[in-house]
């Protein structure tokens, strides 16, 4: 029969074949991972365009949508200026978290937003007066009842106005959540009333540290 290759040569041939197979498997795995990541990024981009959008006005009457805040991190809270206690507490907490994050100049810019759920009473002037007591960069947003309802629905925020009392005053029941959006406009996290300013700031910093922008 044919002469047998020396053992060392046979091992070298087997190793080469094994290496080629492994390289081929790694290449296919890499291609599959690239395709999966590309598909995931397309889904994220589509999600970012439709998720949590709004068409409102700021306190100067300028039309605002989510697109105006792309490129910045956003902390957004829904509430109303006649809220007796919950909203002021939440806004103090939100403002405290923003101040903590602003104290580190290495961190990217962060925009705090307040969207009213009571547009009948919260016009631009009312929002401007109310928000003066909180963070200086806290931007108030209002709009028509239909626009505000659509914005709340986009974030799945529950809103229900109670019956007016003898003086015509009423309370608006609503979800108590602060939402975090990344610079691509994608919803990243939300914080309830149990979270402290320090905990919110720590969580936001973690998201900032792990953030990777979507490619164009």
What does this structure look like?
With 216 residues, this protein is an alpha+beta fold. It folds into two domains: 1-47; 55-210, Glutaredoxin, CATH 3.40.30.10. It is 43% helix and 19% strand. The chain has helices at residues 7-50, 86-102, 124-131, 145-154, 197-210; strands at 55-58, 63-65, 73-79, 110-116, 139-142, 159-161, 172-174, 178-181, 187-191. Strand 8 and strand 9 form a beta hairpin. The longest helix is centred in the N-terminal third of the chain and has 44 residues, at 7-50. It is elongated. It starts with 6 loop residues before the first helix and ends in a 6-residue tail after the last helix. 26% of the residues are buried. The mean pLDDT is 87. Belongs to the SCO1/2 family. Keywords: Copper, Disulfide bond, Metal-binding. Cu cation binds at residues 83, 87, 174. Disulfide bonds join 83-87.
Task: Give me a quick take on this structure.
It is built from five helices and nine strands, in the order αβββαβαβαββββα.
Spell out the blueprint of helices and strands.
Layout: H1 7-50, E1 55-58, E2 63-65, E3 73-79, H2 86-102, E4 110-116, H3 124-131, E5 139-142, H4 145-154, E6 159-161, E7 172-174, E8 178-181, E9 187-191, H5 197-210
Parallel strand pairs: 3-4, 4-5
Antiparallel strand pairs: 1-2, 1-5, 3-8, 6-7, 8-9
Helix pairs in contact: 2-5
GO molecular function, one term: metal ion binding
Main location: mitochondrion
Domain Thioredoxin: 45-209
